[in-house]
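Lab meeting prep.
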Amino acid sequence: MGMTCTLTQLSEPTMRALLEDPAQVFRLVSPGLASVARGFSPYARDPIELAEGDGRQLDLGKSWNGIHFLLTGMVEGGPLPLAFICSTELMAVGQVDVGYGPARLLPPAQVDELQAALTSVKGSELASNFDPGKMDALEVYPGVWGREDGLDRLDEVKHSFDELKAFVEEASRAGGGIIVAIQ
């Protein structure tokens, strides 16, 4: 299965409720696993009330680290807002491990900054940064960028990037935040 990155939209009231009870993060990022997730107790508190539009998700699949690399030139970290996928500078949703560490939160102001930054990035810029040999040498996940199996990895990443831009634009228009979870 491997590591995937899921982005989840949430309203500001839901974001505040989640920060008060971080164990509820599974209700948003992995609703099907909420009752069996590590550290989750369905009896700890009542479920968070979700507002309209909360819980809409985008699964970047295994393209997440490729997108991060093509935006920042780095495997991890980098300057925000474009480094949001692999940034430890974003607010953690408590210490609840959702798979590969805690989920990270972009509040509405950071979503707006990200939306503005992504708007200026064109697919041709991503393509110019795409170097399968370098990405494999640096171990950009999933580490199969240079494989000769007939799959066009750049097209996969560009498609996921286009979905990402639309998702962030929608979250920005709604005035909401985004949870970033690598699972």
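Slide two material, second protein:
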Amino acid sequence: MNSSPIFELADILHTPQGVALAGAYSSPHKSLGGVLGEINRHVEGLKSIEYKDNLDKVVTLPVEKVQYTTSIEDRVNIFLLLGYVEIPSSLIPGTPIYCGEETAPNHFLIIDDANQEFISDNFADLRYLADFAKNEAEAIEFLENQSYDAILIDLDMPQLNGFELVRKLRSLNHIAGIKEIPIIIKSSKRNFPQHDLHLSNINYWTRPFTAKELNSVVKKSML
């Protein structure tokens, strides 16, 4: 069992998707981006949670999905969907809930020729792993040697059109799964040609380029 709990259980909810545990995650003296980063590191992708019953025995329950909503700056409401399971009578509000099985953080390929430090800071705040490529050739080399959960491409690179790069990457048939990897387009623009909007599995990160917005786009991409 991990040394620090995710939260103290606030409520047990019965939803159409099954039982969910609700609680609040907070971290004093951190920005919202920092709090979201801690959640991504400790909670996102959980496969199970643990708690101690009244006999000090560790009880493990499966987790099907993690959802959360932001409230005030240092507090995030978390909902752990357990599915259709029987909840032990020993699990009551106030019980500290701990992470069970750990999962690796999401790994991204970033294709950007100018803003690597800025993007790196945002990804580090959210506890994501990232590799950086400055051009198409570097990107292909990374993709040939490493698996990624998603790709972020800067649309505003002066020497390369982001949408054209998406088409080229999707056509790399020798790279397993390349057509299914989620792609996030980063751009200062908010309006895109309709034919480009219909590219498959594409989401957009636009101004003001905050960690909160990035986190929201990443979650949408991973659905």
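Talking points for slide two:
The chain has a mean pLDDT of 82.
The two ends are 29 Å apart (CA to CA).
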